[in-house]
Amino acid sequence: MLEDINPPPKRLRRTGSPDSSSSNTESGSEVLPLKFCIAPSETEVGCNDDYGVDNKSGADEYLPNTQTDLEAALLPIKTDNEAIADYEISKAQEITIENGATRLQHRYEQREWTKGKSSIYVDAFNLALESVLEDEAHLFDETEMAVFNHWRGLPYESQYLYVRLFLRKTSAWHRVSRLGYYQDIADMPSTVEDLRQSKRLPISPPAPQSSILTMLKSPDDVVFGEIFQFAEGLEQINTLEEASSLLLLDELKSLSKEAKVQGKNKKELLKGLYESSTTQSGLDWPQRCKPDDETSSDADPNQINNLSCRGNTRDLYFTKKILDHTGDCIRLSSAPLRLFERVHLLFYRSTEWTQKSLTTIILAKISRRNYPNYIVSRSNSIFPSRFALLEFEAALRIQFHVDSTLESPKLPIMEKLALIKSSSESVYERWKALVAEEQRKEERVYETGEGAYLRRFSPAWVYTRIIHKGLYALGRFKEYKREHELLTELLSQRLFHASRRGAWYQRKALLEEHYMWPLSPSENRSEEMQKKEWKRKALHTCEEGLEDPDCHLIYHYDLQKRITKLEKSLKVTKREQHDFGHVMLLKPEERIVEGIRIEKDIPIKPGSKDNMNSISRRGRPTVWVDDREGGGECRVENMCLSWYRNNGWKGFHCESGILRTLFGYLFYDVLFTYVPNVFQTPFQTCPLDLHTDAFYPTRASEINHRLAQIANGDAEKLIREVHDREAEKETCAIGIDWSFDLSDLVEIAQCFRGEALATVCKVMAQEYQQRGGGIPDLFLWSMERKEVMFVEVKSENDRLSDTQRLWIHVLTSAGVRVELCNAIAREVRVELPVI
């Protein structure tokens, strides 16, 4: 009987793996298109027949949980204000003056201390610039190099202000009066004026324009002239829309009251103000500006009084009123801003970066941690020429246009689809040429695996994603023949977006089964024979998908289901049918665990509605009594874990923590083997391509060999070897949580069937980033049964998510036991709030 088994010691609850990808970056940071055009995770979550249109581009604001490849590869270390202050103090102590005394001592003795003469933000910004220019200066022309020289000539405080604005809403206006919290700047007005000072650039002959770049050129592209400024002033604000963006909500309400505009929030008030300005006559508004030919000789160009009266007088009146209230404002100029974005693209090997990205690499360098041994290889050939870099940037802007079009709430859906289809068609011919060129390089130039990560910076990588989006539009327009042709072309190349191949096979097979038979020549076949012919082609497509080593495991189950369905429809004889019995797809077992739930009554605030309060309550984790472990309060997962412990299981509440730790142990040598371009600094916890679809194909031989070792029962040996070598140093390797006891890991390896563990590891090797979520809550094992089990805990009203269903499919198809544990309250105790 289960009840007679002595309960083993309970494992402490763990909240997750140490490599958690969430980064608490500032939310709401607006960035220019280049920053947020990076393609999203390259594996769609679903395995549906239709295309998923991912909504991950961050069209108008920075996604707070987005990480760059470099940031994700660095150790999650303390990057808060305290860590930054420690760094800046230490740097100040290192600076010396001619007489040998430290500058810190000199300032203290002379009472000349000025805060902020060393900032981690400026240091990191300049580190990125100098690192790029050291190896990749050939990507910049004479004018751009002159801009960098002007940057070096700026005083420290001007550099500091620029960098802080660069990390904020870079295309937004900022009130100078509200920048005073930057304590590193002693004289804000003069610092602002320094950034707005006009600077002369060398006159260089115009570069020959490529027909490709001309075709890709965007109307908002900016270039340097003979004069430039690092920042712009008030004279550049000439619309009510720009001016009103500077107002706080209370200020906007006051202005809206005068304009007789109503609205419940800032968005509605702004919309009402714009509509009022454009629809109402301006005849009854004061003439606050003079005709263009009556300019005062002592006019100040920074004053709104000099705005032209060509526009709506009402618009100009409110614009002046706003700017009179806000005072001086500043915005970073577009041309140098785009140039520094390009520098960061080259340094971080990413089109996204944040304040955390800028500081993490320096803080990682000064932290006292042990990092894995690997060969650092920073390639200076990521872009072979300036033209390649400029085309990549142009491609990113087209991609941004596609993403923002899809996400726009203003456009009708069919208009969106037409624009996406047009963008896809515009890059198609160039995409074909680049794919052919890249294939030649793969065969003749690159060493084995060298090109996989670099290809992410090819315009063809971006074009492939744009064409993928275009497929969705073609399907909606029922242009199935063209969609099928593009799918065939996409599958004929293996260099770009390999992780999408499974979705392409699925869609191609669907089209062949249902839609292609009336669109192709029948060759005198009857309708029934034509349908059968295309069903055979669909069957062949599914077979190709299963045989394709780049078709990820998560797509196999759906392809197998379609094969079974097609063979039945085609009346394939039993002996010729595919046998997928080895898949062992088992339904998760259902279990009910009863317990005592604590209902903490929340007082309803005056004016709030009861139903809103109940919604808030449903969104919170439930609280239970752990009556098997002393009666203390706990979460529902821990209450269920105690039940399993009492029934002879050992285990953790760790979700992805244990699997990522096992993967880190088992693939330690594979993770840190030499691959060009993926180890850019000595402070990484993983290769840069681990979170991309380049990781698996680049190391296919090594990964498959390791999977074979695991399947043959070598997991325990591999774990012991890594633990003996690295545990004492607690080497910072991604996924590995050194607090897990070696004895527990060895027991798990003994209980985890080799083939099943290899299957789980293969899924993680193919899609490490995407498969971090959705893993069942509890991981259990029993030495007596020699078995492991995953348990997904559900309390009242909980439902399985798509990612959870996917992991249950993966685990059950590998023959791993999975249970759905439903927590039922046999008693509910209501606790009244203490007043």
UniProtKB/TrEMBL annotation:
Principal subcellular localisation of the protein: nucleus
Reported cofactor(s): Mg(2+); Mn(2+)
GO molecular function: 5'-3' exonuclease activity; 5'-flap endonuclease activity; flap-structured DNA binding; metal ion binding; phosphodiesterase I activity
Alphabetical keyword list: DNA damage, DNA repair, Hydrolase, Magnesium, Manganese, Metal-binding, Nuclease, Nucleus
Catalytic reactions on record: Hydrolytically removes 5'-nucleotides successively from the 3'-hydroxy termini of 3'-hydroxy-terminated oligonucleotides
GO biological process assignments: interstrand cross-link repair
Disordered, as annotated region: 1-28, 279-305
Recorded GO CC terms: nucleus
EC id: 3.1.4.1
One Pfam family it belongs to: VRR_NUC
Biased composition range(s): Low complexity: 17-28
Intracellular or extracellular location(s): Nucleus
Ranges for domain VRR-NUC: 710-825
Function: Nuclease required for the repair of DNA interstrand cross-links (ICL). Acts as a 5'-3' exonuclease that anchors at a cut end of DNA and cleaves DNA successively at every third nucleotide, allowing to excise an ICL from one strand through flanking incisions.
Similarity annotation: Belongs to the FAN1 family.
Protein name: Fanconi-associated nuclease
Lineage: Eukaryota, Fungi, Dikarya, Ascomycota, Pezizomycotina
